[in-house]
Amino acid sequence: MDQLRSSDDRVQMADQHLAAEGFSPDKEMTSDNFFGMRQSYNRTGEGDEADQTYEFFIQEYSNPGSDMAAAVGRMAVKSSDGAYAAQYTFILKAPKENVSAIEEYYVAASPSGLSVVEANSWWTCMLGQLPLVGEECGLGPNVCSPAATSIVGYLGCVATHCGPSFSKSSACCNCGCRQWCSWAYGCCRM
């Protein structure tokens, strides 16, 4: 995330948005502060080969004077040849006493530049996908909610309940049914 903050303009915008609200990145290396995954998928068929990589990184932000928790995340789906890519940079906010009550925002481009916009996107899509994965995965959001103290810890708990299906569902929500990535991740819509 430090590397993304120094090189990615959308992550910088998300960081600046939270800094204006008094939040700063949690630097302590704990499972409640950082979560990430990288997975690659390969397909050979009809004489061609395709490789794709999915990345998901999220970091908790803190503001001791606020009753809200916050996190900045970035997802990317990309083909190995670099011809196709989809990225999504987002901010999650929730009350500290109930980190499962997530509000999502994303960094959008407009003619006047980048801005932070409220969204019902990735997390809403995930809540729809998790029950389709299986009963234990579908119960993850409710099971993890009472014990979670951070947004990142909550997402990590849900991901643990779902196993590898969490990343597949997350990538599916980021893919958006585009033909070039739906073969690996399925068809879901943010």
Question: What labels describe this entry?
Answer:
190 residues, alpha+beta, 7 helices
Walk me through what this model shows.
- By secondary structure, the chain is of the alpha+beta class.
- Helix content is 37%, strand content 35%.
- The protein contains seven helices and seven strands.
- The chain has helices at 2-7, 9-20, 122-133, 135-144, 151-162, 164-175, 179-185, and strands at 24-25, 34-45, 48-62, 68-79, 85-95, 103-110, 113-119.
- Strands 1, 2, 3, 4, 5, 6 and 7 form a seven-stranded antiparallel beta sheet that branches.
- The model has no long low-confidence stretch (mean pLDDT 87).
The main sheet comes to: 7 strands, antiparallel
Compute the number of strand runs. 7
Strand content: 35-45%
Our measurement of the CA-to-CA distance between the termini, rounded to an integer number of angstroms, reads 23 Å
**Based on CA inertia axes, which overall geometry fits?**
globular
Computed over alpha carbons, the radius of gyration is 17 Å
Poorly predicted regions are none
Order of helices and strands: HHEEEEEEEHHHHH
SS element count, helices: 7
Fraction of residues in helix? 25-40%
Class from secondary-structure proportions = alpha+beta
Mean pLDDT: 87
Short description:
By secondary structure, the protein is of the alpha+beta class. It is built from 7 helices and 7 strands, in the order ααβββββββααααα. Helix 6 (164-175) packs antiparallel against helix 7.
